Amino acid sequence: MDMKHEICCVLALLFSLGCSDQSPDGAAVDPAVPDDGSHMTGDPAAPIDPLVCEQGLGAASCDCSSNNCGLNSPVIDGVYFSQLSLASTQRNSQGFRLERFASSVAQADGGGQYAPTEDLVVGTDFKLPVGHVMVLERDSKRTYVRLAEKWTTSNPETQTYWAQPSSQPVPWYRLEYTTPERLDQCPPGLPLDSCHVFTNLCPSHPLDDNWSTMQAFVYEGNSYTQQTIEVQSAPTTPSNATWFTIACPGSLPAKMLLTRRVNADSYGAGLKEQQAFADMWAGNYCGDGRVFTRPGWPLLIRTKITPTWTLGSLDYTHSASFTAGEVASIDAVWNGDGAACLNTPRLDTVHPPLDAAPPPAGAASWYDSIQAHCLAVKGHTLPACTAGILPASWGSKGFVISVNPTP
Questions:
Q1: d(CA 343, CA 353)
Q2: In this structure, are residues 12 and 26 in contact, taking their beta carbons and an 8 Å threshold?
Q3: How far apart are CA 252 and CA 262, in angstroms?
Q4: Contact present, 330 and 384 (Cβ < 8 Å)
Q5: Any bridge partners for residue 149, and if so which?
Q6: Is 256:229 a contact under the CB 8 Å cutoff?
Q7: Across 78-87, 133-142, 366-375, 396-405, least confident range
Q8: Residue 402 contacts residue 346 (beta carbons within 8 Å)
Q9: Residue 214 phi, psi dihedral angles, 5° rounding
Q10: Which residues have CB under 8 Å from 167's CB, separation 6+?
């Protein structure tokens, strides 16, 4: 299989059904905080599918504690997250708060500190100067996140958008972190960069050819509620405690940005269209947050915008999209309420050398498992995508179509 077909899944997709508003330790979860699900636990009576739990697919009883979520989300010492607030008193769902800024790591606990500014993130422009530091606090412990490098036009490591205009570069930012304890291990007089005390904020998981960088993207305007995969608008005005997203390559927020389905992009996709793309990336067929996908599973997509050079469209020749000869079967059409129709779920396909994804116990196929779940939560099963829906007639059903590529 051509590596260009590999699409890695998710934003730390360990979701659960029947979640309470309590964290595993009993602490209340603030519903106003954009949540990526790290506090969520599932129904203990529900059966556990080891494969689903292992791959982060959201089995009802998978315990998504803050040290086992992730894949391609930013991570600090095993704690995955994707959003921070500019309000120094506001914590994200993992307990991180952006306490202050500093002009350097050496000044993080001394002079050179300054308060957060509402103008730190404008669209996809992260205005923190190179070398400056975000001081994060969690459980009374501090982490220093340094902006080590910003993308420039002269940098050969250039990431472009997948949606038109696809030649336009996406700004990226090399963020790395350290702790006071690590800094103490550096001998006096030795430059910090020679002590190897910094770790890249973005994990280096293998990705396909659609990704040209392993550095972070930063944007404002959206929040993502992980247990339901709900896409929301986040305030960007100075009068609010604004949230911004740090998206690592391969994560759901990064895919949303590169397909221009975020509020920060000039394409201007509405929330319904954004929701359709989020559901599609996550395999949220029934629209309730139960996902049916697997990291690294092949998937190709097409937008309904024509002609293909129009702003926001995905050119059929782009390696994330497809031409007729690359389609083995249709996965689903997505309308913002889950799947509008379903044919062959991606996990029912075989793509060596990837290991097969056996369906949950008691189900003959992933198709049967999805339909049973939709019947339970929606009151009906999903209709089939009719014959002849390609190349264009599917557009009356939704915003994006996903297909299973030929091996």
A1: 23
A2: no
A3: 11
A4: no
A5: 174
A6: no
A7: 78-87
A8: yes
A9: -115, 20
A10: 160
